[in-house]
Amino acid sequence: VVLMGGCDKTTPALLMGAISMDLPAIFLPAGPMLNGNWNGRTLGSGSDTWKYWADLRAGNITEEDWRGVEGGIARSPGHCMTMGTASTMTSAAEALGFTLPGFASTPAADSRHAVFAAKTGMRIVDMVWEDLKPSDILTASSVDNAVTTCLALSGSTNAIVHMIALARRAGIELTLDRYDDVARRTPVLANVRPTGQYLMEDFYYAGGLRAMLKELGELIDGTQKTVNGRTLGENIGDAEIFNDEVIRRRIAPLMPDTGLAVLRGNLAPDGAVIKPGAADPALHVHTGRAVVFKDYNDMAARIDDDALDIDETCVIVLQHAGPVGAPGMPEWGQLPIPKKL
To answer: Distance (Å, rounded) from C-alpha 274 to C-alpha 272?
Structure first.
């Protein structure tokens, strides 16, 4: 089976299906878009979409400006070029051993992407003859490699949900506590938005995922098998960092640890996750009233009501937005700022 995916949930969904069937399977990532551009500004899909949408709601940009952003933010085929769920999960798939080495970082529009796709098609034929299946690749150590990768990328918080689901499908225990333990020892090396300043096209030309994995050194178990029949360590052995501002060295990380953080408290006794590096440091310690919406429709109906009792110190809580309650964990993570603020 050739698994073709890229955006957010498609990658874990395909991998979970492959794990269940345990047929020879290889993952073909869609690849990130090229960097966006608007009036000389570099745009990142996802984060800049919401940023300029908020500016439009606030009256800081015009409708014509907004059309310019929309026209320049997606310049090519591919998934989001920020370090959102898409690139986090395709990178995790490569760290798990499911893709040919170097494929996950390759931009969709780069001609090398088509070369990798052809090689993927050729390799799956050999995998059938070898009977190389997901159960031959997935171990607790390969899952740890993927978790470490997500954290060194300061990847999407969604990755925690998806990686736990993937591990469970393979019969491997992965908990929030394990994620937290690994986060405390893993430096953030990818200087990619929203935690950093660059985008996936820059990350690829700086050396890509292979270079970052090699820089992680002993934090990655290089003995794990991958779909090309070689070990992860063999696949990254000759990788180099070509721009250490985009892919940082361990001696000068973007953050020393905690690319993602696990929190527990009265709002989330079973655990919650945040990406500390993507937040204004002023928000790391905050006290404010909770303004609660019972679901998305409730929020849409009341968020811009001038009578809504809310100010800039309040914390918006949206209930029933997770994998079970929503259901299916829809893309409701970017809650709008009330117009009156």
So the answer is: 7
For residues 264 and 245, what is the distance between their CA atoms, to the nearest angstrom?
34
CA distances from 18 to 25, 42, 86 (A): 7, 37, 18
For the chain, the structural domain boundaries read 2-33+80-236, 36-72, 287-341
CA dist list (Å): 326 to 14, 210, 319, 320, 335:
21, 37, 9, 5, 15
Return d(Cα 255, Cα 70) in angstroms, integer. 32
- Asked if residue 134 lies in contact with residue 18, where contact means CB atoms within 8 angstroms, the answer is yes
Asked whether the whole model's pTM tops 0.90, one would answer: yes
Pairing of strands 290-293, 272-274: unpaired
Q: Report angle CA 312, 61, 290 to the nearest 5 degrees.
A: 20
- As given in the structure block, the two tokens for residue 126 are 């050999």
Report the pLDDT averaged over residues 83-109: 97
Query: What is the rounded distance in angstroms from the CA atom of residue 341 to the CA atom of residue 337?
Result: 7
Q: What are phi and psi of 292, to 5 degrees?
A: -105, 135
Q: What is the mean pLDDT of the chain?
A: 95
Residues 190, 196 contacting (CB under 8 angstroms): yes
Q: Who's near 102: CB < 8 A, 6+ residues apart? A: 94, 116, 208, 209, 210
Which of helix, strand or coil describes residue 198?
A: strand
If pLDDT is split at 50, 70 and 90, which confidence band does 172 have? very high
pLDDT at 329: 78
Range with the poorest average pLDDT among 198-212, 222-236, 279-293: 279-293
- Euclidean distance between CA atoms 53 and 56, whole angstroms: 5
pLDDT of residue 243: 98
pLDDT at 184: 96
Dist CA 72 CA 44 (whole Å):
10
Q: Is the CB of residue 213 less than 8 Å from the CB of residue 142?
A: no
For position 322, what pLDDT does the model report?
A: 82
